[in-house]
Amino acid sequence: MSGSSEHAAHAPDAPNARAPGALAGLRVIDLSRVLAGPLCTQMLADQGASVIKVEPPGGDETRMLGPPVNADGDAAYFTAVNRGKRAIGLDLSRAEGRDVLLRLLEDADVLVENFIPGTMAKWGLDYETDLKARFPQLIYCAISGFGEDGPLGGLPGYDAILQAMCGLMSVNGDAASGPTRIGIPIVDHLTGYTAQAGILLALYHRARTGRGQRVEATLYDTALSLLVPHAANWMHTQRTPGLLGSAHPNIAPYDRYTCRDGDIFLGIVNDRQFRKFCDYIGLAPLLEDERFATNRQRLEHRDALRTAIDEALAHRARDTVCHDLMQLGVPVGPVHTVPEAFEHAHTRHRGMRIDRDGYHGIGAATRLSDAPVRLRRLPPAYAQHTDEVLREAGLGDTHIAALRELGVLPRRPPSKP
Questions:
Q1: Tell me: domain 27-227+360-406, CATH 3.40.50.10540, correct?
Q2: Structure confidence by residue, pLDDT tens digits, 226-278
Q3: Which of 2, 140, 212, 353 could in theory staple to 127 by disulfide, Cβ–Cβ 3.0 to 4.6 A?
Q4: Cα separation, 285 vs 288, whole angstroms
């Protein structure tokens, strides 16, 4: 399954489909593992950056987080966030390995790492002390759980733990379930996007000043930033947000409802939409009821409103309701399973499902009209490109062989469970 591919990630008839990506020529050294860092660098690769994934002797942990696995024995989880990259194995705990990294940084624009804070400094690779003067144009992106300092500084961070600590679980779930983890690693995901945004901001700043800088993204900050509108509501009222299930704390009706053959989510955000909904669904009398005249009043009487809507939808067909209301401009959608979402015709139309040469993945969510996203390389096997990358960095075959003999360049794939 490993190797390179020049297939378009989006529809083949997209304009300028063979044009270079927006980040073509950008060189990225990716020291990160698991999700937030690899997702960040995959997004850079999707936009044309040359990304070299540097893995320790044990490999990126996500290679082992299966089944399911691909033909190389790597978990599907790993393939989801590592396409478009070349991979080398390198033992950075060895001085010789760190020397190789410094060679790679000589023509690099960006370094991304998500080690426990202090690890790079321990290796003599601290940005301020060791790298900034040597590589003044380098953009150094550090991703961590809590940052370097403060009461929690330097501690390891994991998505679900941050969901718990930062209040996300406290507003997710209902009375029956209690506080519940959001079903995707949303903190890791958004931290990857936050890191990407920081890198792009630093690149813009470098274009104006000629100077690189350190970019920081933490899971802690990211998790807190997700608490909109719950944190703002609390700051203004001092009332602790609680569990509302699928409902919204500030809008009604904005919730999951059950039709005859499946669930829908109804998201009405203004009075005009509410009038259209009531006229369609046979609830016109609600429009004359002062309890439901405005969103504020509907929030105060959300239980009575819920009962009326439940009764009106119970015998209606899900897809018909969704089609008709959307045509009327009332936001509503079926509650799809993951297969239903990815088998939908619009998913294919938007190029958000990729099936290329044995690779299956999610398409890029950001696209530019004149700089297309393409699947340039399939997710790499462990250390697949070590010799190729090091030759490009100026190391001769004798030097490479000597490093391999020392154990600095592991080339055997990590053992699979």
A1: yes
A2: 999 999 999 999 999 999 999 999 999 999 999 999 999 999 999 999 999 99
A3: 140
A4: 6
Tens of pLDDT, residues 152-170:
999 999 999 999 999 999 9
Q: What is the DSSP string of 316-368?
A: S-HHHHHHHHHHTT--EEE---HHHHHTSHHHHHTT-EEEETTEEEEPPS---
* Spatial CA neighbour of 36 closest among 305, 266, 301, 220: 220
Nearest to 85 by CA among 384, 351, 357: 384
Residue 129 tokens, joined: 């002390």
* Cα Rg, the chain, nearest whole Å: 25
CA distance 373 to 417: 34
Looking at residue 6, its amino acid is E
pLDDT of 333-385, one tens digit each?
999 999 999 999 999 999 999 999 889 999 999 999 999 888 889 999 999 99
pLDDT bin (cut points 50, 70, 90) of residue 16 is low
Residue by residue, DSSP assigns 63-82 as GGS-SSB-TTS-BHHHHHT-
Burial of 178 (0-12, 13-18, 19+ CB in 10 A): exposed
The residue extents of the domains of the chain are 27-227+360-406, 254-336
Beta 359-362 vs 353-356: how paired, if at all? antiparallel
pLDDT at 374: 84
pTM: 0.91
Question: What is the average per-residue pLDDT within 11-37?
Answer: 83
Q: Tokens 């410094």 correspond to what residue?
A: 102
Which helix (H) or strand (E) is 29 found in, with range? Answer: strand 27-30
Report the CATH number of the 254-336 domain: 3.30.1540.10
**CA distance readout (Å), 273 to 115, 256, 284, 310, 360:** 49, 17, 13, 18, 39
The set of catalytic residues is: 188
Phi, psi of 35 (to 5 degrees): -125, -60
User: Are 216 and 142 spatial neighbours (Cβ–Cβ below 8 Å)?
Assistant: yes
Confidence tier at 412 by pLDDT (50, 70, 90): low
